[in-house]
Design goal:
With 251 residues, the protein is of the alpha/beta class. It has a single domain (10-241), classed as Rossmann fold (3-Layer(aba) Sandwich). It has 8 helices and 12 strands. The chain binds adenosine-5'-diphosphate and magnesium ion.
Length: 251
């Protein structure tokens, strides 16, 4: 099934309720992907995995194993040396900039290389994501308010990114990714800088998104996250899926 780039699936908003539009069975497919950087190091060596629509997958692996690189490949921010990456049935390689922008707008992204805009406040940064999916001004105000509240950020709504702690900035990035209630969520280390209490709240929000039907691909070091999300674990090691992950699936 192919996904018409001209009209990517976007969440339809109205009266505080959201209808998810997800016309594809396999959300993300990564087939025999190789990736190296100029440093000569092979990061991914024939990496293959897929995420079904509505499935949650947690990508684990040691630091430097390529988790962040993989997420950036999936959104076309990096280019694979070889292999195939399909998002919603559409091949990412070879897409032009507007097409990639449309694909990214249809997803909730908290990935490396997408910092908060420094000239905008917390609330404005989050609202911008809603504007990209053409929410009405009324929906926009309501959703920004509800989302910041859920993340415990209501007191920081008028702060600028340079005045946020690392953990706060991380939560704003995740709030920005989830505010549109996207059908597909990609998050890189969503709990990495958070204390225990805050982590609990963020895990609950991620779980809600998944229960609502969102497809989730989350890179993390946090061993609790997979079980809390009810996610399938994929371990990335030595550039491939570590077969040990299958034992983990049973447990
Ligand atoms: P992880 O997220 O699992 O910690 P990364 O994907 O960030 O791993 O990095 C994987 C490897 O690729 C690391 O050795 C890192 O130094 C290297 N790497 C990542 N991005 C770049 C880049 N833009 N240029 C050169 N090397 C990179
Ligand atoms: Mg990383």
């Amino acid at each position: 099934m192919s996904w018409d780039i001209a009209s990517p699936p976007i969440p339809a908003m109205g009266r505080g309720r959201v209808i998810l539009v997800t016309p594809f069975p396999v959300a993300i497919q990564v087939l025999d992907v190789w990736k190296s950087f100029q440093t000569g190091l092979d990061v991914l060596k024939g990496f293959t995995f897929s995420v079904a629509r509505g499935e949650a997958v947690v990508l684990e692996g040691p630091t430097g194993s390529g988790k962040s690189t993989l997420l950036r490949l999936v959104i076309g921010a990096e280019r694979a040396d070889s292999g195939t990456i399909l998002v919603g049935g559409t091949e990412i390689t070879g897409r032009n900039t507007p097409q990639l922008a449309a694909i990214r707008r249809s997803m909730g992204l908290m990935v490396q290389g997408m910092p908060l805009l420094p000239a905008l406040t917390v609330a404005e940064n989050v609202a911008l994501a809603l504007r990209a999916v053409r929410a009405s001004p009324r929906d926009e105000r309501l959703r920004v308010y509800e989302t910041l509240k859920a993340f415990g950020l209501e007191g920081r709504r008028d702060a600028y990114p340079s005045h946020l702690s690392g953990g706060e900035a991380q939560r704003v990035c995740l709030a920005r990714a989830l505010v549109t209630r996207p059908a597909v969520v990609l998050a890189d280390g969503p709990t990495a800088l958070l204390d225990r209490a805050t982590t609990e709240g963020v895990m609950a929000i991620l779980r809600d998104a998944h229960v609502r039907g969102a497809t989730m691909l989350v890179a993390t070091h946090d061993a609790d996250l997979a079980s809390r999300l009810g996610a399938r674990r994929v371990v990335l090691r030595g550039g491939r899926v570590d077969d040990g992950s299958r034992a983990g699936d049973r447990g």
